[in-house]
Design goal:
The structure holds two protein chains of two kinds. By secondary structure, chain A is α/β, with parallel strands linked by helices. Chain A has helices at about 5-15, 40-55, 85-105, 125-140, 150-155, 185-195, 240-250, 310-325, 375-385, 400-405, 410-415, and strands spanning about 35-40, 60-65, 80, 120, 145-150, 170-175, 180, 200-205, 210-215, 220-225, 225-230, 235, 255-265, 275-280, 285, 295-300, 335-345, 350-355, 360-365. Chain A is about 30% helix and about 20% strand. In chain A, helix 3 (about 85-105) crosses helix 9 (about 375-385). Helices cover about 20% and strands about 30% of the residues of chain B. In chain B, the strands form two sheets. Chain B has a four-stranded antiparallel beta sheet, covered by helices on one side. Classes of the chains: A alpha/beta, B alpha+beta. The interface between A and B is medium-sized, with 26 and 32 residues. The structure holds flavin-adenine dinucleotide and zinc ion. Zinc ion binds near residues 22, 75 and 76 of chain B.
Chain lengths: ~425, ~120
């Protein structure tokens, strides 16, 4: 792997940037692998990387139906935070934030992780009570989160409208200073490049169309558009398409797939210092380094695989943005798109074993799994490589629905984030 | 009727849904209510835990034809069922709650055949 550094940049500049190599190979699939990951999003590529780096597995393939990062990884609004209510969630998401903090160095790839702070607005008495409860719970778990008055929130984010005449006035906010954003594509590319350097085959344009099981029920490999590929260990990490893939192995999932939309504005000079989210009025916003306002809306009302949403959902979000930030009222929106997010009944992910021997699943990240990418990939790699969950993902089983051990973040975070 | 700019670009505005009681209305009058024909167990105490999981949480979530419930909440307020393709979001049929589950492939084949005749 060609290392990136200030020195290599200068050297390449002197030779007209003609000496850069491709960042990963384009291999044809082998007949079999020690482990196969289905889905080349950040979670799948990251899992392959950690399996190769930490568990010594070298004969691994990542199979991607389209191009890597073309799913939700490349479609999301990149908000990263770990101020979740329950102990299990705080441990999982904070594991990810800690890995984010060293990721660019770790991968020798700039993922542009920027801890500019995530401000969550409270508009009602219920919001205030619930946010304060989160803050106390977070602090007990060693996760930073603090309460700001409306005036303090405005000081932190000057464009914010805190006038009492708003339809839903801002009455305060919770701030996680370690939260922020990262560059979505760079996460996919950085993991792909680092995994490839460790020998992982990244195979694009290779759709999995079947999962083959032997007489004892265990997996034997996958049918793909590039032929059959054998493996005794398969990890499904396919976000919105998880139900479709698991059905190929005869497993029914507690999931529903919904379109989730985002949009970006025309680029402008730096005007917006942090990330702001409002669950109550359904809007979240930050400014990318290119200068675009990155705005996220809620999910559409009905399940779908269409990768686009209805206009009234985006409009509803823009209404909220205009009320919260009157200075953006005359901005023009450039692009609007959707991704398909897989939602569990308790809004917490599933990372673990399945009833099928050799088949593992990482899914249910719904509207908020980008922030978890390194943490999720890390514990999923452990689960596939050792056959048992890491202690951080042990509570996030498929069986928790049967056993009544939900991790009910739905109660408070059932909104896009 | 000429296509609007969003329609020309292939973007979706919102669904038009035919309530079996009121006729075609915009999506915003409705509320989605999940997969249809999931009957409440008639003898709940006879179910084991896995059967409860299936009833409460597991869903088909297909990529393709889906039979689902809708409620005309800002209209007649009644529940009804629809057959929709989850890739194109096209609704092929709506019918009253209580009617049996239709043969979805036959419904779609029938409609497409009629359309190609035209
Ligand atoms: C609009 C939007 C905004 C969001 N905002 C945020 C946010 O601000 N913060 C946050 O934390 N999260 C956010 N999310 C959620 C986040 O994007 C996802 O949870 C996360 O990116 C999932 O990563 P992944 O790698 O699991 O999935 P993906 O990146 O979707 O990867 C799954 C891959 O599997 C592939 N695949 C599917 N079927 C097959 C098959 N049969 N064979 C081979 N490959 C297959 C797909 O092509 C895809 O590339 C948002 C999502 C959307 C859509
Ligand atoms: Zn009606």
């Amino acid at each position: 792997m060609q290392k990136f550094s200030g020195f290599s940049l200068i050297r390449q500049a002197l030779s007209g940037h003609q000496g850069w190599q491709a960042q990963w190979r384009t291999p044809e699939p082998k007949a079999s692998y020690d482990a196969i990951i289905v889905g080349g999003g950040g979670h799948g590529l990251g899992a392959a990387y950690y399996m190769a780096r930490e568990h010594g597995l070298k004969n691994i393939a990542v199979l991607e139906r389209g191009w890597i990062g073309g799913g939700n990884t490349g479609r999301n609004t990149t908000i990263i935070r770990s101020n979740y209510l329950f102990d299990e969630s705080a441990a999982l998401f904070d594991h990810a934030v800690k890995l984010w903090e060293g990721l660019s160095q770790d991968l020798n790839y700039n993922v542009m992780f920027s801890q500019r702070g995530v401000l969550m607005l409270a508009h009602t008495v219920h919001d205030v009570q619930s946010f304060k409860r989160h803050i106390h719970a977070n602090r007990l778990n060693g996760v930073d989160n603090e309460w700001l008055s409306a005036e303090e929130a405005k000081e932190f984010c000057p464009p914010l409208n805190i006038s009492p005449g708003m339809r839903y006035p801002v009455v305060g906010a919770a701030l996680q200073r370690r939260g922020g954003v990262a560059r979505h594509d760079a996460v996919a590319w950085g993991y792909a490049r680092a995994a490839d350097a460790l020998g992982v085959d990244i195979i694009q344009n290779c759709e999995v169309t079947g999962i083959r099981r032997g007489v004892n029920g265990a997996v034997e490999g996958v049918e793909t558009t590039k032929g059959f590929i054998g493996s005794k260990r398969i990890g499904v990490s396919a976000a919105g398409h998880t139900s479709v893939l698991m059905a190929m192995a005869g497993v029914r999932m507690p999931l529903e797939s919904y379109p989730l939309q985002a949009l970006v504005s025309e680029p402008v000079k730096p005007v917006f210092p942090c990330v702001v989210m409002s669950n109550t009025i359904h809007a979240y916003i930050s400014q990318s380094d290119k200068g675009e306002l990155v705005i996220g809306a809620g999910t559409d009302a009905y399940t779908s695989y269409s990768q686009r949403g209805a206009l009234h959902i985006a409009t509803h979000t823009l209404d909220a943005i205009c009320e919260l930030f009157p200075m953006f009222r005359r901005m023009r929106m450039l692009r609007n798109w959707g991704g398909i997010v897989d939602v569990t009944p308790d809004r917490s992910p599933i990372i673990g074993k399945t009833p099928v021997p050799g088949l593992f699943v990482n899914c249910g990240w719904g509207t908020g799994g980008f922030k978890a990418t390194p943490g999720s990939a890390h514990v999923f790699a452990h689960t596939i490589a050792t056959g048992e969950p890491h202690k951080i993902n042990a509570p996030f089983t498929l069986e928790r629905f049967r056993d009544g051990l939900m991790i009910d973040e739905a109660a408070d975070a059932a909104v896009a984030h | 009727m000429p296509l609007s700019r969003t329609e020309r670009r292939g973007e979706k505005q919102m669904l038009l849904i035919a309530c079996p009681y009121c006729g075609e209305r915009p999506e915003t009058e409705f509320r989605y209510a999940g997969e249809a024909h999931i009957a409440r167990p008639s003898d709940p105490s006879a179910l084991n835990d896995d059967e409860w999981v299936d009833f409460l949480y597991q869903r088909a979530n297909p990529k393709g034809l889906h039979v689902e419930r809708w409620r005309h909440i800002h209209g007649c307020a009644r529940f009804f069922n629809a057959v929709r393709d989850t890739v194109s979001d096209r609704i092929f049929k709506t019918y009253e709650a209580g009617e049996p589950r239709p043969d979805v492939n036959a419904v779609v084949a029938d409609i497409l055949a009629k359309e190609s005749e035209r």
